[in-house]
Amino acid sequence: MSIQNALPNYQSFDEILHQQSVALTAAEMHGLISGLLCGGNHDSSWQTLVHDLANDGLAFSQVLARPIRELYEITFESLDDSNFNFNLLLPDDEAGVFACADALAGWVNHFLLGLGVASPKLTEKPEIKEVVTDLRDIGMLGYDESEDQEELSQALEEVMEYVRVAVQLCYIALATSKKVSNTKKDEKPTLH
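^ that's the sequence the OP posted. Answer follows.
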């Protein structure tokens, strides 16, 4: 089974969030989790952070906890994959271009939130400073409903691909560098 197929159905996941009175959309939740992962949060503290940021610090019911844990694991697997199979959890094309644009903006904003929480010294990383600036601009994405939907759809596809690649760059620059530094800390010095 490919990683893309492993992502939950957007509409179903969005409904579970809504039924459990979580104010985030499926796109926003995936963006938040992706940001935490890219910021290097790979231990169990991610759950507490998600509870704090998405549910007023309260744990989720089991109905929601399991799908969120699965989403975290799938996202981590896809980000850590050398084939760059990471994808954004967004509504499908049938939702319409405006709904997709809104979901993308929400995804990006929550990605930046998760990234900032997991890696507070983000601005000290020159290798991703431009990417983060671009993502902030994308998070403020606007459109005019009178715009040609075909042109907007094509532009949106390009922006989504940029975001997908930008997220992978953030993961490589931040999360994998934390892995390397943690590995070096665990190594015992060699005496000669």
